[in-house]
């Protein structure tokens, strides 16, 4: 995927199998979200294709959802002034066959479909533990529940593959643990999960396989153990391997941090004086 002169994702060949949880990690700007956007039809890749169950997908978001791939976004994208139930029902629309006229006339076919959709939405709310809040406005939910609701909305399209973009961003440790259980439960339903995450403990704990993107290219892919031990990953992403006298290295880091803090406070003092 190229943007003008910038190649954001280069020759990334990537497969997710059913029943798998796969983690996609990499430093900021590595191309992870761009890769998700290519998979879901938000971007039309400059070269290459995305296939689902052996069929090449047209790069159009609604067709990708219809085919069986659903996603959440890095930032919450709920309908804040709609209820919890309504938000899930919105995610259901790709699976209802009733057309516009039927919906407008609210004929018997529409009412039946509406009832079935509502039942399915309630099942999903039970599954994520928000059934008791069905009539609450989305904006009034605590942050962790809003993220859960996004996942329920994505599940409402009955996906075979769920893409989660930083599902634990901004969560406290309890919410993160609950999300971990939720992802396992989703996998246990037979849905494949591909997730972008910066929380390394979360990603290595959950994933059957982890793929590392660096500057738009796949650096390494393997089990959590393999990836965590890979020298290139440690150097490029997890931090330099620890070498030499720890005392000296620490002292140098503290000195550098103090020097930069001094510089910042001098600048801000100057700023205030002006
Ligand atoms: N629509 C766009 N137009 C131009 N450049 C873009 C566009 N989207 C992404 N990029 C660039 O592509 C590169 C990859 O960005 P991307 O957001 O995919 O990285 P990321 O790995 O998801 O980062 P982060 O972890 O910070 O979310 C960056 O250099 C970014 O500036």
From TrEMBL:
<dbReference type="GO" id="GO:0015188">
    <property type="term" value="F:L-isoleucine transmembrane transporter activity"/>
</dbReference>
<dbReference type="InterPro" id="IPR032823">
    <property type="entry name" value="BCA_ABC_TP_C"/>
</dbReference>
<feature type="compositionally biased region" description="Low complexity">
    <location>
        <begin position="257"/>
        <end position="274"/>
    </location>
</feature>
<dbReference type="Pfam" id="PF12399">
    <property type="entry name" value="BCA_ABC_TP_C"/>
</dbReference>
<dbReference type="GO" id="GO:0005524">
    <property type="term" value="F:ATP binding"/>
</dbReference>
<dbReference type="GO" id="GO:0015192">
    <property type="term" value="F:L-phenylalanine transmembrane transporter activity"/>
</dbReference>
<feature type="domain" description="ABC transporter">
    <location>
        <begin position="1"/>
        <end position="240"/>
    </location>
</feature>
<dbReference type="InterPro" id="IPR003439">
    <property type="entry name" value="ABC_transporter-like_ATP-bd"/>
</dbReference>
<dbReference type="GO" id="GO:0005304">
    <property type="term" value="F:L-valine transmembrane transporter activity"/>
</dbReference>
<keyword id="KW-0813">Transport</keyword>
<dbReference type="InterPro" id="IPR003593">
    <property type="entry name" value="AAA+_ATPase"/>
</dbReference>
<dbReference type="InterPro" id="IPR027417">
    <property type="entry name" value="P-loop_NTPase"/>
</dbReference>
<keyword id="KW-0547">Nucleotide-binding</keyword>
<protein>
    <submittedName>
        <fullName>High-affinity branched-chain amino acid transport ATP-binding protein LivG</fullName>
    </submittedName>
</protein>
<dbReference type="GO" id="GO:0016887">
    <property type="term" value="F:ATP hydrolysis activity"/>
</dbReference>
<dbReference type="GO" id="GO:0042941">
    <property type="term" value="P:D-alanine transmembrane transport"/>
</dbReference>
<feature type="region of interest" description="Disordered">
    <location>
        <begin position="241"/>
        <end position="274"/>
    </location>
</feature>
<keyword id="KW-0067">ATP-binding</keyword>
<dbReference type="InterPro" id="IPR051120">
    <property type="entry name" value="ABC_AA/LPS_Transport"/>
</dbReference>
<dbReference type="GO" id="GO:0005886">
    <property type="term" value="C:plasma membrane"/>
</dbReference>
<dbReference type="GO" id="GO:0015808">
    <property type="term" value="P:L-alanine transport"/>
</dbReference>
<dbReference type="Pfam" id="PF00005">
    <property type="entry name" value="ABC_tran"/>
</dbReference>
<dbReference type="GO" id="GO:1903805">
    <property type="term" value="P:L-valine import across plasma membrane"/>
</dbReference>
<dbReference type="GO" id="GO:1903806">
    <property type="term" value="P:L-isoleucine import across plasma membrane"/>
</dbReference>
